[in-house]
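Reminder: ligand-aware prediction takes two inputs, not one.
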Amino acid sequence: VEAELMRAQRLESLSLLAAGLSHDLRNILQPLLIMPDLLKARTDDPQLRHLADVIAECGRRGHEMAESMLSFVRGSRTPSEPIRMAMLFEAVALLLRSNLPPEVELELEVADPDLTVHANYTELQQVLLNLALNAIQAMPDGGKLTLLAQADSDAQGLSWLRIAVSDQGTGMSQEVLSNLFNPFFTTKPNGTGLGLMSCKRIIEGAQGRIQVQSAPGEGTRFDLLLPAYEVPADAPVAEAPVAPGSGQ
Ligand code: ADP
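Here is what comes back for the chain with adenosine-5'-diphosphate:
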């Protein structure tokens, strides 16, 4: 599980890097798109005009490459599907139990077995694993890790699916809390500081929200709020769009 998460986090930082690079590249190449024309307007020398054309062509190709790299990194919308929460929790629990420290107790609470969310299975699973592994690491002396799912609605009358991951671990100081979602922020000797950033990106990408409550010595609770999904009466919900643990 850890290895798979590390891989996902490395990919995440790679795509951050690619996004930054292509953005900079696009700006750097900008003059190459305009200046060759300015040059050509100032000279009738065929050789200089030809050089200007070659430069313009390189600029155009470079720009196109930066553009497609950028749209690859931020584009590629991940497909969503209806996911039964009870099934997702079982899949996550299966992965967690394989290396759960004996002093940590795992509890699953799904209010309604038909509770369903519309999301990308692999991504949502990654979010839950990230949060759960953080929770386990925060409980070196053991405690209870709880995954909860329930229907919810807010003051505006909007319906949400609430998923909560809570632990009885060390909790967090104000300082940690205010940096939590920043890339590369970590308090662990071998941490990447990319887990929570990637959770936030995934949840917000699914039009959801992520909230955290924590205090030193009092444990931590992360709440994910995702738009409620009504299962169409005539559409059976797929059991497992991606086999759990298939490495997808
Ligand atoms: P990493 O786990 O690699 O450090 P994350 O982005 O997942 O990266 O977490 C950032 C930091 O947030 C952690 O280093 C830790 O200090 C804090 N943190 C996250 N989850 C918890 C938790 N459940 N309990 C206490 N601290 C946490």
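The pocket of adenosine-5'-diphosphate is lined by residues 130, 134-135, 138, 167, 169-170, 172, 176, 180, 185-188, 191-197, 220 (CB under 6 Å). Confidence is low (pLDDT under 50) at residues 242-248. We will return to this case in the review session.
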